[in-house]
């Protein structure tokens, strides 16, 4: 590899000749070989959009020469189209506040803009990373703004996957609505429920989680860009602040506004804590649902076996024919990781001091990572698992007939004491509640079928009592 020498305020640095980034990015690469990971592309896109819109705003105020501004905008558009993806190289675990990430983007766009104007990489005679690409900005207002834009982008993608999962559960709720089965509380027999009601409940739970996530969007849409170093707007014209927010709203299609206090927007990580907490709450629900799917599909001979999950892959390297519930399993693992990410976000959010929270890079990494893996997992869970679930109606009916929970159903018809005697005989003899009722002549077959009618039995009311 050949290198070029670049100079910054600390001296000279060797930078790969082919690189679009420059000296400050190279220093960060040398200083922070921590995780081997690269910044999330949503964060990169958001930062590039800020640079593009800042150039547009600075040209509008005539602070930035049109020729230079146009070159920056063109370089940004190229980056947004996918060029230079390998040039954003700073580890997510880096210097506080995200200065290295901000400079990485500044340098890539500056070098490309210089090329557009006929210059070469590493020579900033025409377009300077600090003076032009970063004009009227600071890392301290750019990075939290980029976090907001990236979080909104991924949150909308996550919302789409949650909607699809909720809809898939709702469709299964309709498909299975006629199937009566034994309910279970404390993992013990309980009164009957329809299989469709279980699936419909999951649909509603996910819909409620969607609403919780959407309620956090308002805080994310209030930007602090233009606050520069500490939120006071030093070196940013008043007109620039409004213009850059308007440009970002057009660029992203989001209803973005200027924060009431740019100082507050810089200090507090509340919107990210709220979003992360809502994503964690979604993960908590999903863990419960995934566990339910695993329980209901357990077997095929020695478990509950009331539903069948699509077979995805061999389940064992030693047991032939074994098939495991791999999609609910990976959902659990992803959700555990999401919950861990939320704890990191909370710890980092409270670790800010005075005018700045320098822990923003780790907040951004964990929040974006959590939403990325969750949305990807949900897509697989919905398309490869939930949509293909089938019901074992006979198995559901067998468990229902054997369930001592039926005694509760019979109590209004035959009395609590008689129902208790039936339940005790069923438990002692191993006979089903149905068999005991018929053998004792308490109810006829027709009367029993009427008592066990699926819909009246699983809706409010006192069934079987005149």
Automatic annotation (TrEMBL):
**Could you tell me which residue ranges the Fumarase C C-terminal domain spans?**
406-458
InterPro entries with a match to the protein in the record:
Aspartate_Ammonia-Lyase, Fumarase_C_C, Fumarate_lyase_CS, Fumarate_lyase_N
Q: Which residue numbers delimit the Fumarate lyase N-terminal domain?
A: 11-340
This protein's source sits in the domain of life called: Bacteria
Is Thylakoid one of the keywords UniProt gives this record?
A: no
Q: Which UniProt keywords apply?
A: Lyase
Give the matching Pfam families: FumaraseC_C, Lyase_1
Designated name of the protein = Aspartate ammonia-lyase
What species is this protein from? Answer: Geomonas oryzisoli
């Amino acid at each position: 590899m050949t290198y070029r020498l670049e100079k910054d305020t600390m001296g000279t640095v060797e930078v790969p000749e082919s690189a679009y980034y420059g000296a400050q990015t190279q220093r960060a690469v040398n200083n922070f070989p921590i995780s081997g990971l690269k910044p999330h592309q949503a964060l990169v896109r958001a930062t590039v959009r800020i640079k593009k819109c800042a150039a547009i705003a600075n040209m509008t105020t005539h602070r930035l020469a049109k020729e230079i501004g146009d070159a920056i905008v063109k370089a940004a558009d190229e980056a947004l189209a996918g060029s230079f993806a390998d040039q954003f190289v700073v580890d997510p675990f880096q210097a506080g506040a995200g200065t290295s990430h901000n400079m990485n983007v500044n340098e890539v766009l500056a070098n490309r803009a210089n090329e557009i104007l006929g210059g070469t990489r590493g020579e900033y005679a025409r377009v300077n990373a600090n003076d032009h690409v970063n004009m009227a900005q600071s890392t301290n207002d750019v990075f939290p703004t980029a976090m907001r834009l990236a979080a909104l982008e991924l949150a909308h993608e996550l919302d789409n996957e949650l909607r699809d999962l909720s809809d898939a559960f709702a469709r299964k709720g309709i498909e299975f609505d006629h199937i009566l089965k034994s309910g279970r509380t404390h993992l013990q027999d309980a009164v009957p429920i329809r299989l469709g009601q279980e699936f419909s409940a999951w649909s509603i739970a996910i819909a409620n989680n969607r609403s919780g996530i959407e309620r956090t969007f308002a805080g994310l849409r209030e930007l602090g860009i233009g606050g520069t170093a500490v939120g006071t707007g030093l070196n940013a014209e008043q007109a620039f602040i409004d213009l850059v927010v308007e440009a970002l709203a057009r660029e992203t299609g989001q209803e973005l506004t200027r924060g009431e206090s740019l100082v507050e927007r810089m200090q507090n990580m509340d919107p990210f804590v709220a979003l992360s907490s809502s994503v964690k709450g979604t993960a908590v629900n999903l863990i419960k649902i995934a566990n339910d799917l695993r329980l209901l599909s357990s077997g095929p001979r020695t478990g509950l076996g009331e539903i069948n999950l699509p077979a995805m892959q061999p389940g064992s390297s030693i047991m032939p024919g074994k098939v495991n519930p791999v999609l609910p399993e990976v959902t659990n693992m992803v959700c555990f990781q999401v919950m861990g990410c939320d704890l990191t976000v909370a710890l980092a959010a409270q670790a800010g001091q005075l005018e700045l929270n320098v822990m923003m890079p780790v907040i951004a990494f964990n929040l974006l990572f959590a939403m990325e893996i969750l949305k990807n997992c949900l897509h697989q869970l919905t398309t490869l698992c939930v949509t293909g679930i089938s019901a074992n109606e006979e198995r559901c009916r067998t468990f229902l007939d054997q369930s001592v929970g039926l005694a509760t159903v019979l109590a209004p018809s035959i009395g609590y004491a008689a129902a208790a005697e039936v339940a005790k005989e069923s438990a002692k003899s191993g006979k089903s509640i149905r068999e005991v009722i018929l053998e004792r002549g308490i109810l006829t077959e027709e009367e029993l079928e009427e008592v066990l009618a699926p819909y009246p039995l699983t809706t409010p009311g006192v069934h079987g009592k005149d």
